[in-house]
Amino acid sequence: MQLRAVLFDLDGTLVDTAPDMVGSLNRVLANHNRPLANVEQASKLVSNGGKALIEFGFGDTIGQGDIPKVETLVQEFLADYKTFVANDSYLYPGMSEVLTFCESNSLKWGVITNKPLHLAKDLLEGLGLLDRCAILLGGDSLPVKKPDPVPMLHTCMVLSLAPSECLYIGDHLRDIQAGNAAGMDTATALWGYIGDQETPEDWNANFMLKSVGGLLELIKEKHLAA
User: Fold this and answer.
1) Are 6 and 132 in contact, with CB atoms under 8 Å apart?
2) pLDDT tens digits, one per residue of 49-85
3) Residues spanned by the domain of 76
4) Is 175 among the residues known to form the active site?
5) 9 carries an active-site annotation
6) Does the model's pTM come out above 0.85?
7) Are 12 and 105 members of one domain?
8) Are residues 138 and 191 in the same domain?
């Protein structure tokens, strides 16, 4: 069936948000006189959200001595991150061309993320993308989130599209699971935050993409094949 929409995960797929998310983690660590996290290692956890970053940074010191419980640290992280959400984050190189191609060829594009909606909106607005995307769903937009397919199916309903007319790109197993369960074509973004111990070749995506350039070629191929 004809490709009519290209849908993205946000962190680690459309936008490299690691500079700002790890920056917020390190400011929280500094606030509690803890050693700063290794940026490269912490970046691999960005797709798992603030709680995963806090647990990585603080380890077994959480709740010990003067260190608050994890829920308090996560709220401190989120408050800091909201201030710096679009400070150093950027579209992956080549992604601007992907979005421009979609817009120039009547392909809708949108974002389905587990990131809280208010943070996702602030990020896209800061990057000048909010008014360009056809839909934005956050992790709290619906009662369930990825890997549940409901956000994907809801997106199809809003855009008046069949799942088979959509391509979903993500860098996490839950992205591929949600897209597959909804009946969309799926693509793994190998440029994203994939840990060394993860095996994306086992995620059962329709496509595995090594680069954003490869994504553009895939979209062109599917568009021209219609």
Assistant:
1) no
2) 999 999 999 999 999 888 999 999 999 999 999 999 9
3) 18-84
4) no
5) yes
6) yes
7) yes
8) yes
